[in-house]
Amino acid sequence: MRHHLVLRVVAKLLIPLIMLFALYVQFHGDYGPGGGFQAGVIFGAAFILYALIFGLDNAQKVVPSGYLMALVSAGLLLYAGVGFAAMFKGGNFLDYGVLAGDFIAGQHLGILLVELGVGITVCAVMIVIFFAFAGRGNGDEEDDDIATSPDLSPDSSPNSAREV
Amino acid sequence: MHNLFAAVMLAGIYSLLMASIFVILDAVDVAFTEAAVGAGISTVLMLGTLSLTKSREKIHVRPSIIPLIVVVATGAMLLYGASGMPEFNDPNAPVHQHVAPRYINVSPVEIGVPNMVTSVLASYRGYDTLGELTVIFTAGVGVLLLLGRRRRSKKANETEDSASKEPEVST
What is the pLDDT of residues B113-141, one digit of tens each? Predict the structure, then answer.
């Protein structure tokens, strides 16, 4: 992708805007459409766009897989942790009302934290899945192609001839 | 259609059309999710899969009748089931009489969040959302175990080889 100058420039312009929009969707989800799930997907899409334009290796330098693994579980732990925090404060599991002094304020805090947890895990999982799919073709092509090409190449030529 | 690339593109366009239908039905949050996940991420993932496999479907020489029977039977059952559903936009439908009035009337006072979808998803149905998040977590771990495995096993083989070589050198 070294020669696609327009794509690189447009992607560089778009990626910060995509991330900003994801943060807006994340933290404005209480007031408008949106929430953790959509925000996580959009935030992940920014990294996927980066990986598509600038290559998988560069993208993996930006988000090392160790951090990704930590983020995948951190979101879920944050969600469950909010539930347990409510239990320690004397409420039921995921009963946000007891988290702050006021019931409404507790609900706001709980929803904000829970949506943040959803966003973190969804974003990290989307990037992980994309990296797993895209990284599949790099190192282990040789044995796959050698194994399949003698079977498929005689098949594919008569098929294409038949369709034409 | 045997061109899988066109099939993926059609699936993405279909998701985008579904998203606009959800917007018309005033389900903005669902439309948002459909547009981001259905039209965006899954199209990218399917394209990524296509780049690993062949982009043409393998043509079967003799057509099988069983898929047609399954599709027709399922369609007939769905049509029969849909005939028993309440009319579209019927305010007296059971789904609008169960917990929806409570959410609509009480949630602005009880939760204090203007977007009712958020208060239902994150607060009233907090367990369900926790379960959904666990599903996504499990999906990510599963993909890693299935697809991220081979390179690690190669490295493990290399280290095993070097480990097995070392004692030979020493002896």
Answer: 888 888 888 888 888 999 999 999 999 99
The answer to whether residue A148 is domain-embedded is no
Residue A156 lies in a domain: no
- With a CB cutoff of 8 Å and minimum separation 6, the contacts of A103 are A97
Copy the structure tokens of residue B162. Answer: 């070097």
Task: Say whether B3 sits in a helix, a strand or coil.
Answer: strand
Tell me the CA distances in angstroms from B151 to A128, A146, B148, one per residue in order.
Answer: 15, 18, 7
> Which domain range does residue A45 map to?
5-136
Q: How far apart are CA B122 and CA B118, in angstroms?
A: 6
Confirm whether A120 is domain-assigned.
yes
d(CA B130, CA B30): 18
Domain count, chain A: 1
Please, are residues A27 and A118 in contact by the beta-carbon 8 Å criterion? Answer: no
Identify whether the C-beta of residue A53 lies closer than 8 Å to the C-beta of residue A1: yes
User: Coil, strand, or helix at residue A12?
Assistant: helix
- Who's near B59: CB < 8 A, 6+ residues apart? A159, A162, B2
Chain A closest CA to B171's CA: distance in Å? 34
Which of B33, B51, B119 is closest, CB to CB, to A37? B33
Residues in chain A: 164
Q: How many helices (H) and strands (E) does chain B have?
A: 9, 0
- B131: three-class secondary structure by DSSP: helix
Is residue A23 within 8 A of residue B23, CB to CB? The reply is no
Contacts of A152 in chain B (CB under 8 A): 54
Query: Which residues of A fall within a CB distance of 8 Å from B3?
Result: none
Global pTM reads 0.77
In angstroms, rounded to a whole number, what is the distance separating the alpha carbons of residues B168 and B165? 5
Cα dihedral sign, B25-B136-B145-A135: positive
pLDDT tens-place string over residues A12-51 = 999 999 999 999 999 888 888 888 899 999 999 999 999 9
